[in-house]
Amino acid sequence: MYNRILIANRGEIALRIMRTCMDLGIETVAVFSEADRGARYLELADEKFCIGGAKSADSYLKIDQIISAAEIGNVEAVHPGFGFLAENAHFNEVCRDCNIDFIGPTPDAMQKLGDKNTARSMARAAKVPVVPGSEGLIASEEEAVKVAAEIGYPVLIKATAGGGGKGMRVAANALSLKSAWQQATTEAAAAFGNPDVYIEKYVELPRHVEVQVLADNHGNVVHLWERDCSTQRRHQKLIEEAPGPTLPKHVRKAICEAAVRMVQNAHYQNAGTVEFIVDKDHNFYFIEVNARIQVEHPVSEMVTGIDLIEQQIRVASGEKLPFKQKEIPCNGVAIECRINAEDATKNFMPMPGRIDEICIPGGMGVRFDTHVHAGYNVPPHYDSMIGKMIVHQPTREQAIATMIRCLKELRIKGIPTTAPFQIKVLQHNDFVEGKVDTKWVERTQL
Ligand code: MV4
């Protein structure tokens, strides 16, 4: 087990990692930008280093600065959290070259799975269902038209270096496909430095279901069941829950087993998420692997009783998984609401600023992961999430009721948040009946 770990992140996930490290008796080294100087969570670290200016590019994305902090801080491992450098294979490699463990997959697995077309081929090889589409990359608009004619419209053009919805274009017919291909490749080259795209049949109004997986360095792989993340707006998740509310038992079993096969074949190690879309007939299709711990990992922790950050650290240090698949339950229902400093009445405009007062809910099955406090200034430089309300109850009905109570009890004075909007979603019949797909928020007047 490690003695000292550097946390290459900020905010609630940095505090989340610190807490598990402290529970395990592991010292922590924190890094912070000028914008985060003085943040209260930093006081919990055994040592902290300023790594640069407020802009992410000047601090949390500065590999040399973070490595310097790791060297001076004399750490054995780095936990990247999510976002920033969490899926940067080069950073992963630099850590290992400097004899610092990267708490995550190998650079090779990260690199391969980061290329979405390669990941798709790996899924096929693992007999994981993929959306009907091109065998490989599409080199011209003529080839795009040919492939689309075979799979049928509408089709989705995806950037192989994209992910999370970035670099996607829908085309309803051959004419629009030609311009969509041009736009997609130009946009991908500009955004990712890689113009390569592939094509898939567009699955209308899918649900977004993802499977949490955990693999050690000894060939053992388990899943921690699935999460439904369909309640999202423009690819920004708002509410996540475990287990998925609409999956029949046989589909849950199949999708979780497919995720395990994918991870085994990819020689993936540590925590990861295998993401699927599920159509109205419960057909599921592989989309991508997220090679990091995710924002919504707490809902999987609540229903399984497993501390995922602890297991990430143990696995990275070479330990074997301490449980077999049959020992991992899925108890009750957990729901997470991301509390963002945004004004839902103003098109979810980010509203950074000072939190004058905050009252955090509690009670049976209530968890609020946050780094903010009264007097905290929400900086404008990073994403707008200021905390995550998580509830865990025996049934989905109870979990929804407790979440609504908590969102009402939550008092944050000084900035608007998404809580009032999420109350409306949780009270809506479609949500209660599990009829929310990935476009529901955008088409429903709340
Ligand atoms: C799709 C899809 C429908 N058909 N692929 C979105 C980003 C990445 N996670 C994969 N995504 C999707 N891939 C096919 N062939 C629907 C999504 C999707 C989505 C698409 C548009 C708007 C919001 C979305 C939310 C989740 C998934």
Characterization of this structure:
- Helix 3 links the parallel strand 4 and strand 5.
- The protein is globular, with a radius of gyration of 21 Å.
- By secondary structure, the protein is an alpha+beta fold.
- It has helices at about 10-25, 65-70, 90-95, 105-115, 115-125, 140-150, 175-190, 250-265, 295-305, 310-315, 395-410, 420-425, 430, 440-445; strands at about 5, 25-35, 45-50, 75-80, 100, 155-165, 165-170, 195-200, 205-215, 220-235, 235-240, 270-280, 285-290, 335-340, 340-345, 350, 355, 355-360, 365-370, 375-380, 385-395, 410-415.
- The strands form 6 sheets. Strands 13-12-9-10-11-14-21-19 form an 8-stranded antiparallel beta sheet, sandwiched between helices. A 5-stranded parallel beta sheet has the order 3-2-1-4-5. Strands 7-6-8 form a 3-stranded antiparallel beta sheet.
- The model has no long low-confidence stretch (mean pLDDT about 95).
- It folds into 3 domains: about 5-105, 3-Layer(aba) Sandwich (Rossmann fold), CATH 3.40.50.20; about 130-200, 2-Layer Sandwich (Dna Ligase, domain 1), CATH 3.30.1490.20; about 205-445, D-amino Acid Aminotransferase, Chain A, domain 1, CATH 3.30.470.20.
- Ligand MV4 binds near residues 156, 165, 208, 275 and 277.
The gist of it:
With about 450 residues, the chain is α+β, with helices and mostly antiparallel strands.
CATH level-1 class of the largest domain: Alpha Beta
The largest sheet, given as strand count, sense and whether it forms a barrel, is: 8 strands, antiparallel
Spatial separation of the terminal alpha carbons: 49 Å
The helix/strand class is alpha+beta
- Output the number of helix runs: 14
Q: Provide the low-confidence segments as ranges.
A: none
CATH topology assignment of the largest domain: D-amino Acid Aminotransferase, Chain A, domain 1
Bound molecules: ligand MV4
CATH architectural arrangement of the largest domain? 2-Layer Sandwich
> What spatial form do the alpha-carbon principal axes imply?
globular
